[in-house]
Design goal:
Layout lengths: L1 E2 L8 E2 L8 H20 L3 H25 L3 H6 L21
Antiparallel strand pairs: 1-2
């Protein structure tokens, strides 16, 4: 984590690889690799590299835009929603429920 400012050290940004957090970068490149593998399995060699690069670029741009708004978008995306808990309730640091 890097501090965004020397004055406001509590404001932190995660480490980035080409503008994306490592988990989102791995997700984008893995999706591109799956697109290339799918094209190779279906024997469509001419579309394999353009399809893979298109998927990587689209995901990279989408993730980059979201990460500019929220630096911790990767954690929000990877967080498993708990549908069995019912309505969303806010919990304070002390453990009490917020009113």
């Amino acid at each position: 984590m890097k501090a965004a400012s020397a004055v406001l050290t509590q404001t932190q940004r995660p480490m980035m690889i080409l503008g994306l957090p490592p988990m989102l970068f791995i997700l984008a490149t893995s999706a591109g690799a799956v697109a290339v593998a799918l094209c190779l399995i279906l024997d469509v060699m001419a579309l394999s590299i353009p399809a893979g690069m298109t998927v990587i670029v689209i995901l990279w741009v989408t993730f980059w835009r979201r990460c500019r708004v929220d630096h911790h978008f990767d954690r929000a995306l990877m967080f498993t929603p708990r549908v069995w808990r019912g309505a969303a309730t806010r919990t304070l640091v002390s453990g009490r429920r917020a009113r």
